[in-house]
Amino acid sequence: MTPDRTLPATPTSSAHLMRRMLVSTAFYAFSFVLQRALSVLFLPIYTHYLSPADYGVLELLDTLATVISMVLLVARFSAALNYFYHVAPDSGARDRYIGTALAAGVAGSAAVFAAVFSASAQISSFLFQTAQFSGAVQVFSVGLIATVPIEIGMAYLQITDRAGLLSSVALIRVLANAGLNVLLLGPFHMGLSAMLWGSTICALATAAFLSVKVVREVPFSFSPFALRQMLVFSAPFAISVVAEFILNFGDRVFLKSRISLADLGLYGIGYKLGMIIASFAACFLSYWDAQVVAIGRRPDGLSLIGRVATYFFAGMGLITLALALFARPALRLLASPEFFRAHEYVPWLALAYFLRAVSGFFLGVFLLGGRPGYVAVLRWAGVSVCLLGYIFLIPPFGAWGAVAATVSAFALMIPLGWWLSQRVRNISYDYTRIAKAALAMGCGWLIFNLFRPVSLTGEALGGLAALLVTAVVLLATRFISRAELDAILALRHSSPPSPTAS
User: What is the pTM of this model?
Assistant: First the structure.
């Protein structure tokens, strides 16, 4: 039986809406934490079979995947769906947007796969200065077929508020991927190819499941008018494609000719650990971006957005602090000695992606006001700083120059994003409480570095003590009000609708 495709019911009270928001975010976060835990648990196996140079190859292929995803406008179609799904007048119109996005995306993915596969030797020569890795590029290209079906399928589940099912799909994919990697690395001794084939097979299986799910629930229809509307809405995102690449991965292009492949691999590991912050932010923003249009239309919508911004800042700040505190002991415990030096980059890159997450909150306001053009403005402003940093800081300082450029660019995007968002909607943010949260996290980090121990156990205990100091400062400054505590207690006795897992 085809489920009702009406909009998810929006809770009438702000307390219930917050509860629903927490439940959905918890689903995403639980799935993400398990995924990262599996990645960490399997890290000793991967580093046993793979060299830092292998990680360098994977890093450049990841960069290529990001560029291709941007060209396919995957995230941009998701943003267009988030907007048009909520403003469409009826379920038939919503179905046309979903079917059109899926059909156009599959066609685009197939075309890009054919192009990358046929040009594998040239791409290998460009990325690695040798055609030796053309086979790896071909395997990688097969997985491109799944790119858009996965993203559109995930966007559909987010819009219809099925966080449980979405998280389950993501978790099963990671479990299957890890199992295949170990099987192909160990018994089959496939080395670098094991990681590529494992990822490709699981991506294709996930795409098949999600595509069947969407087609079964949404009567297929293709509308040139709907496609034109989504392309027009997505045009500012398309303009910012190059900007997005430079902000996230442009440093690799500059670094590959300045540092060794092994050093690039270490930087890549540090960068991936720092980007855990972006993944945690996505746990919330996956819900937020899909529902902000509906939330913003409530009578109390703008005040809710201001409150959520405070909680988001504090929550992401605590996660960033925890990652910075425990990155070094985690690497010492789980990775081979030649990978230890990657921990040096983690605190700064975690800070960079915390700043990026804060600026990313404003993108929901742009979406609410139907102003995607501001996304391009914000990203290109960050790029201007990034490029200057890459040009002038990477040659003398190498990877650390890239770190400085990234932090500076993301820091600039916060005040600019705030200013642009205020032009869209006049939202009152609680700057006093945001400052209290920043003070608490700063105190925790300062205490940790003043008394930083050397031993692995000492570092772990020091990290816990720093988190305790942070919590004490939050309580002492009364970051959480009495009214909020009462609301939290009241929610324990309520039963708002939770995201379905069907």
Answer: 0.71
